[in-house]
Input
Amino acid sequence: MDENCIFCRIVEGGLPADRVYENQHVLAFRDIHPVAPVHILVIPRQHLIGPSFLDEDAAFLMAEMFLAVKEIALKEGIDGTGYRLVMNQGVDGGQEIHHMHLHILGGRRLRWPPG
Ligand code: 5GP
Ligand code: ZN
Output
């Protein structure tokens, strides 16, 4: 728990969020500024900054996040039409919140490559 971290505060329940999925390791909620009809963030409950800060002990959380994605995609009805997963790391990646998260983007055709 990092008291200055918005996502830790969402995990703790101190900040509201539109939660769509949770289990003992991960939590998923709708992005406050969606850029697609479905825009959900999947985060580990544990405060981790991003993939560059991952260690062996926390590596299983990556698998937990992807297993959650599969469940959420089914629940949101985008497993058939598809979706994009994005994880931003650092300044050039455009990371604004320094608590690791996967963006699930779906519900419309996305362009490639991203800008
Ligand atoms: P990043 O740029 O770090 O990959 O993405 C951070 C994302 O978190 C952005 O898409 C932003 O809209 C979202 N976000 C920032 N603050 C909040 C918040 O308080 N609640 C929710 N639900 N999403 C947030
Ligand atoms: Zn955090």
